[in-house]
Structure formats: structure tokens, C-alpha cells
Amino acid sequence: MKKILVWSLYTRVFHLLAMVLMLGVYLSSDEDRRLSIHASLGYAIGVLFLGRIVWGFLDIPYSKFKDFSFKIADLKTYMLSVFGAKKSYIGHNPASSYAIVGMMVLLFLSIVTGALAYGAQEGMGIASFLNHTWFAKMKLFKEVHEFFANALMFLIFAHIAGALLDRLLHSKLILRSMVDGYKEGEGQSVQLSLFQKAFGVLWLGATVVALIYLLASPNALLLADNNPKVDYAKVHPAFAKECGSCHMLYPPFLLPKTSWDEMMASLDNHFGDDASLETATMQSIKAFLDDNSAEHATKEAAVYMLSRLKNDTMPKSITQTSFWKKRHHGIEKVASSDPKIGKISNCKACHPMIEQGSINDRDIKG
Ligand code: HEC
Ligand code: HEC
């Protein structure tokens, strides 16, 4: 048996980039603050895999889709012989052929549903219009995205487990071939044409450029924040003046109507302070709060807060809602130890645009 070059430099760099970007997108998935990094990485992986699809149609031995083995009978034999003397494949074996196509399908489904969820839930990016129409279903959008993303991760773990098992039970070369490109067997080595090399450079370069561009351009079409900023001093001067005199201005969408009504009915004892107003001013502010309460908002904070409300107890303050507590686990310590924040109700220390009615994940400090 001789050593043959199976994976060209471009295929190996693709594989390495795919590993690094996938790890990044996975690690950035569970924190709101990293959402725009998560989205940028997701789109960059999209560029990478679009290029890989084109690569699969170029006449490159082992990498082209024509050289994948998709025969179900072969897959069966292959899986049954994993622990025994299995047939060795120079290019992709039936299991990895199916895994790769499965990963591609799940990846594109994850990207599309991710973009839709980003629009519906956050009002961000290319599908931000969904936040005006489908906001009530934002949770569903997010869950569908998570379903595809988890399925993708499952397939990736299976693929890694398969490769490690192979390494343990069979040849050491197969895993190493993703680094140096060589396998042992009968066949010809890969040789790329000038055109194929040029495409390879363009393809991998475009992925890196796309990633850098997205990370550096928060206003790019795919990531832009399309939530309107509200100037409350213009929209309702009395609300901005009276309710912003002792503390920061809390946007009306952060509490349900009943909570605002109760608060406005007891301004003479407002968290221990007397915040009473003339009846006409009070009624005008109350009407404004009611018209813009959580029930009328398309914001993530409003939709999730309402969905977690228990009917019998209406929150007396924002920081008492279970939604707020869940998102701010452990924040009390951070707030009290930092003199710039002081107390947890000083939202604007961590959400700089909140007085303009915007709680953009990527602005979050603290
Ligand atoms: C006289 C001072 C004063 C005025 C005027 C005032 N507040 Fe307050 N407000 C407070 C204090 C004190 C607290 C409790 C401490 C804190 O959270 O900052 C509070 C808390 C709140 C909270 C709860 C924040 C949380 O922790 O969840 C909301 C909401 C609120 N105020 C809304 C209003 C609105 C609406 C108005 C206008 C009608 C208003 N406030 C006017 C003093 C005031
Ligand atoms: C000490 C910093 C800090 C303070 C103070 C703070 N937050 Fe947050 N907030 C955060 C962090 C960090 C997150 C993100 C948590 C995560 O990644 O899941 C967050 C998340 C949120 C979210 C969910 C994200 C979204 O897009 O809807 C809302 C809503 C929110 N905060 C509202 C508030 C409000 C209202 C206040 C004031 C009553 C407040 N926060 C005070 C740090 C803070």
C-alpha cells in the first residue's frame, strides 16, 4: 500500500475552519450578550458551506459529491462491521458521506431559522419585520432554531465519536489525514487545477472576510438593530418629566397594564416615597402607560414577561417579575459592589439605551 494525498490543503483548511467556527457558534449560543457574535459566526459558516457545496461539484477526487458513497446497502455493511474488519474507504465512507450531507442540510436550516428567530424575537437583522407581525410566536421561532441547531450538534458529536472510534479500533492514519491529507491505500493523489486552487483561495478568503466584516459592522443588513428608539420627552413630556425625576425612566412595556394601574392608584406611597401628582397629570400618564404596557408591545421582554405571569399575583415592580429575576440571576451582587450601578433598578447602567425604549442584547454591559 502506498501513501496518497486524499485531502487537498483547501479541504483541510475548510475542515479546520468549520471546526473552529462551529465551536465558536456553540459557545456563543447561550448568552444574550453574545448574540450578535453568534449570528456573525453562523452566517460565516453559511458562506463556508456554500463554498463547500460548489467544491463538491468541481472535479476533485474524493471531495466531489460523485465520490461520496450513498448506497444504503454499503452504509449497513459499514455500520455492522465497525468493530470488525471493515472495508476501508479512501475518500468518504458511507457513514461520513451521510453525516456530511446531513450536516449541510441541518446547517442551512439552522441558519435560516436563526435569522428568522433573530428577527421575530429581537427585531434585528434581515427578518426584523417579523417582530411587527409574528412577535407573539417568538418563542416558537427560537425553539425551531434550537431544534435544528441541536440536531446539527448531535450529528457533529456522532461524527467526532465515529472518527475517534476509528482511530482506536483501526488505523491511526484516518484521523491524521485531516491534518496532513494522506491516507494509505490504492488510488491516485489529488492534484488541483489552477482554477480549482483559485476557487479555493476565494472560498476560504470569503469566509474569513465575511466573519471579520460582520463582527466589525453592527449595522450590516444581516445584524442591524431595527427597533425604533423612542424619545419619551417628545412622545409624552409629562411622563418623561414626572416619572424620570427620582430615578431613570422605565419604559412602559416593562410592566402589564394592571401593575401600572395599581402603581398609579397609589402614588402617595410609591415604594415608600410620595410621588403624588395632580389628578389630570396622573390620568394622562396612566393612559399613556396603559396604551404602551407590555400587552401592546412586540418586545422580547414584554412577551416573555407576560408569558411567565401568574394571574393571581401581579408584579408591583419590574424587578419582581420572574422573567426579570431569571435573566438577572446573581446580578444583585454585581450591582451593589459596583458604585456606578448601585442598585439593580438602575437598569441604564447595564442597558444604556433603555430610556429610549431599547434593550439591545449587544449593548448590555456589566
Ligand atoms: C419621589 C420620587 C419618585 C417619583 C416622582 C417616581 N418614583 Fe418610581 N420609584 C421611586 C423609588 C424610591 C422607587 C424604589 C427604589 C428604586 O427601585 O429605585 C421607585 C420604583 C419604581 C419602579 C420599580 C422599579 C423596579 O425596581 O422594578 C417603577 C416601575 C417606577 N418607580 C415607576 C415610576 C413611574 C411610572 C413614575 C411616574 C408616575 C415614578 N416612578 C415616579 C421614586 C419615585
Ligand atoms: C448589573 C447589570 C444589569 C442591571 C442593573 C440590569 N440588567 Fe438587565 N441584563 C443584564 C445582563 C447581563 C443581561 C443578559 C443576561 C443573559 O445573557 O441572558 C440582561 C438581560 C436583560 C433583559 C433580557 C434581554 C432582552 O433583550 O430582553 C431584559 C429585558 C433586561 N435585562 C431588563 C432590565 C431592566 C428593566 C433592568 C432594571 C430594572 C435591568 N435589566 C437591570 C444586566 C443588567
Compose a concise summary of this entry.
With 366 residues, the chain is mainly α. It is 55% helix and 2% strand.
Account of the protein in words:
With 366 residues, the chain is mostly helical. It has two domains: 2-216, Fumarate Reductase Cytochrome B subunit (Up-down Bundle), CATH 1.20.950.20; 232-363, no CATH class. It contains 15 helices and two strands. The protein has helices spanning 9-27, 35-57, 72-80, 94-122, 130-133, 138-169, 173-180, 194-216, 232-235, 237-242, 257-265, 279-291, 300-307, 322-327, 331-337; strands spanning 2-5, 182-185. It has a two-stranded antiparallel sheet. The radius of gyration is 27 Å and the shape is elongated. The mean pLDDT is 92. Bound molecules: heme C (HEC) (2 copies). Residues 242-243, 245-247, 250, 270-271, 273, 275, 285, 317-319, 345 line the site of one heme C.
Please tag this protein with its features.
Fumarate Reductase Cytochrome B subunit; mainly alpha; elongated; 366 residues; 15 helices; single chain; two-stranded antiparallel ribbon; binds heme C; 2 domains
- Name the CATH superfamily classification of the largest domain: Transmembrane di-heme cytochromes, Chain C
Count of domains: 2
Total E-strand runs: 2
Mean pLDDT: 92
Sheet of most strands: 2 strands, antiparallel
The N- to C-terminal Cα distance equals 60 Å
Overall 3D form: elongated
Strand content: under 5%
SSE sequence, one letter per element? EHHHHHHHEHHHHHHHH
Question: What's the architecture of the largest domain, going by CATH?
Answer: Up-down Bundle
Annotated CATH topology of the largest domain: Fumarate Reductase Cytochrome B subunit
**Rg from alpha-carbon coordinates:** 27 Å
Poorly predicted regions are: none
CATH class of the largest domain: Mainly Alpha
Count of runs of 4 or more consecutive helical residues: 15
- Strand adjacency order, main sheet: 1-2
Q: What structural class is derived from the secondary structure elements?
A: mainly alpha
Bound molecules: heme C
Helical fraction: 40-55%
